Amino acid sequence: MFSKRVAQGALALASVMVMAGCASVGGGSITKGNTAADARGSAGGSTSVGANSGLERCDAPMGTIALDDGRDKDWYYAFGEATKITTIEPLLRLAIQQSNCFVVTSVGNSRTESRLAAITDKQRNSGEFRAGSKQHKGQRVAADYLMEPSIIINNEQTGKVAGGIMGIFSPLAGALAGSVENKASVVTLSLYDIRSGVQISASEGSATASNYGAAFGALGGSAAGGMSGFSRTPEGKATVAAFMDAYNGMVQSLRSYKAQQVKGGLGRGGVLNVGD
User: 151: alpha, beta or left, given left = phi > 0 and alpha = psi -120 to 50?
Assistant: First the structure.
């Protein structure tokens, strides 16, 4: 009898959430600003395989880019502790290469840069590698731009699904709905011209992830197991989606990019003069 009630409650909860647009089959949902909800698939050169269909793409790259890994930022470790996600950077690198809007370099990732420097030094100076290995200086590709990600709001609880609504269908569904939470994330991306230090572009992205896997966890067994991957880190899912939202917005604005001009030239005093 209890198992039957559980099944009925779960069915009612799932049905209402799907109809309300709160859920998708498989458990959990992501509502983003105006863009792809996640980064997926692979990239090789300008070729993209299995990318999110909502990701903006460019016919040709606009330049080379360095991506700040965020390891020295105040939000970095707090974000990892809250979401159990170790880093956002690889997903951003994937999305940027899939978009074909920039050629991604290793610059900006302190660990990768350190490892490459150590390998290059060993291969160039140890004398243990074959002649003609092309380890001479002057081969690294410089980055034209620096992209800096920032997390403004993470793990913001935006509310719970009303248990009373679910209770219309089943008391058990109403009880389960009490643990359904929405977590929001707001992020920014800033793009700088490395040679001049001028900010080229800035964009904001936002997304909300529904964590109702925890509610289904009360059912036990396979019903909860199928959703556990999503429910563990709804904040992380929302943050990834928010960065995709911000990146798409940035690409859209850069398609119509016009450099800002200051009378007299940049950095030469400006036009807002002060009094004597």
Answer: beta
Calpha distance 147→213 (Å, rounded): 34
Residues 6+ apart with CB under 8 A from 264: 270, 271
What is d(CA 4, CA 221) in angstroms, rounded to the nearest whole number? 14
**Given its phi and psi angles, is residue 183 left (phi above 0), alpha (psi -120 to 50 degrees) or beta?**
beta
SS3 sequence, 41-57? CEEECCEEECCCCCCCC
Residue type, 217: G
Q: Which residues pair with 128 in a beta bridge?
A: none
DSSP state of 271: S
Q: How far apart are CA 98 and CA 93, in angstroms?
A: 9
DSSP conformational letter for 20: T
pLDDT tens readout for residues 54-70: 899 999 999 999 998 77
Tell me which residue has tokens 């040679």: 195
- Tokens matching residue 3: 């198992």
User: Vertex 195, ends 95 and 198: CA angle to 5°?
Assistant: 75
Q: Which two tokens stand for residue 239?
A: 């943050």
210 contacts 181 by C-beta, under 8 angstroms: yes
Q: Could you give the dihedral angle defined by the CA atoms of residues 268, 269, 271 and 272, in that order, rounded to the nearest 10 degrees?
A: 160
> How many CA atoms, within 13 angstroms, populate the side-chain half-sphere of residue 242?
27
pLDDT at 219 over 80: no
Mean residue pLDDT across the chain = 75
Q: H/E element holding 226? A: none
Q: How many helices (H) and strands (E) does the chain have?
A: 10, 8
Comparing 192 with 182, which gets the higher pLDDT? 192
Q: Report how far apart, in Å, the C-alpha atoms of 135 and of each of 64, 127, 128, 141 are.
A: 22, 11, 12, 14
Q: Is residue 138 predicted with pLDDT exceeding 80?
A: yes
